[in-house]
Amino acid sequence: MDENRLIEQYGLHESLKFQTADGHIWFDQARMVLMHAATLGELRKELIDQLGCSSAKGILWRLGFRGGQMDARVAAKRATKADDYDSFRLGPAIHALEGMVKSDIVDLTIDWMAASLEGEVQWTSSWEAEAHNELGLPLDEADPTACWSLTGYASGYVSEYFKRLIVFREVECACAGHAKCTVIGKTAEGWGEETPIEQLWLEHGDIRRLEAEEELRVLRRQARQGESPPLTPAKGSIVGSSPAFIRAFSLLGKAAQSSINVLLLGETGVGKEVFARWLHENGPRAAGPFVAINCAAIPLDLVEAELFGVRRGAYTGADETRAGRFERADGGTLFLDEVGDLPLAAQVKLLRVLQTGELERLGDTRPIKVDVRIVSATNAHLEEAIREGRFRSDLYYRLATYPVSIPPLMERGADMGLIARMLVDRFSPSYGKHVPGFTDRALWTLEGYDWPGNVRELENVIERAVLLLDDGQKIATEHLPPELLREEEPAIGVNRGGALVPKLAASCEKMLEDMLVEGFDLATHERMMVELALRKTGGNLAEAAKMLNLSKRQLTYRLNKQGIE
To answer: Considering the domain boundaries, does residue 25 fall inside one?
Structure first.
């Protein structure tokens, strides 16, 4: 069977893995779901009952089209060294592996240079035709066929393969009494006025209209009930939907329209400056400046000059009068990051500014009025610093009028996809690349990592991935640092007979079958295994025996038998 040859030759079995401990099934980088065909049949019935045959057909066709596109990308990855025809034939092979249908090419004409195709394919064991018949579902009199998602899949796969729209249309269906389902594929232009694609996309527009009408109904209901839509982050700023994020953002949103001093608490790298900037941009001082300063990054002898400014001649090197961060932030917001690292002398002057609204530049006695909102942040426990005498309690109570805790990234699992996507959109233009997103497996890997460096670490990971990948490619696990990759064993794979076996056993079985085909000498291979175990253990017999699951005496016997010293 050609499908079996292709499945084995290009390692499709090895791409299918059952990670039962985590509740995942993987096909390459994509998460799969094993479902009863009867369940999909019931969904099909529901769509037909609710929307009619025409709309149901459009939805299922588009579903199949998307699946075909995704599998075409898997095929392109697996068949990099295959000839054109074999790589093309991986589509039907994958479709068979997924239990969808068995394909037999009746007639096929491909112009590889022009990227065009015209052909006829027969299908047997179509899950759609079987489900449609078993449920006694109606057929459209104008188009008595049932393999809607399958024709969508074929169209999506071939369109992605040739990078142009190629549409398959079912002309005979087992549901209508034919022995097999027959489909014909042509370029969209080749169908002329008969192309079915326009109707299928038109139905998509109808769905969008229904969604808009539902959104309008929700807004009208909120208006009647006196509800206001929830405050949401500005695009490109902060994003999230996890409970931990919502709690923090709700507190932040309530403080936005006031001038209350806010203290942001959280681990290093959680994005406290991003939250501070959002607070500024969504408050009454948005038109004023936003000035940030990292208190931990300033040399101790320059802290006061940076914060409050300096008069010319105040100290050696002060060649000119210079405004400090407070003056530069006048009318806006001053963000004091790592405020817990301020020296005590600077804390005294900062407290005075907060109390009086006036400051004095270093080396000057003339007071300067400032109108500044203070947003501060720390990753330290300031209460402990107060007890140890490293931080003034009166300053703390001034800064911590409204504390907000920013959750670490590991508590924001539901936000990972949103944040990662935002970062991709930020970095991809810098490298001149279009990045359509992440593979399921890559996103699963990101979600399972602890992220000790929080969002800052994630930023580094995403930028590195964007640099490594090719234009138009999704971020996959091979683009992620090795330390992020999750331990996935034990896993379950599929052997050549279609049975589920431990992943190691599946790969061993394939290896042993290949060895038998190529010629196998048991004594030689046993000797090779023993010698390898000895090399791995540095000649330690006890360790080598343990590695081979033998006793030391049994290993010694084999060494003597094979003349290994």
So the answer is: no
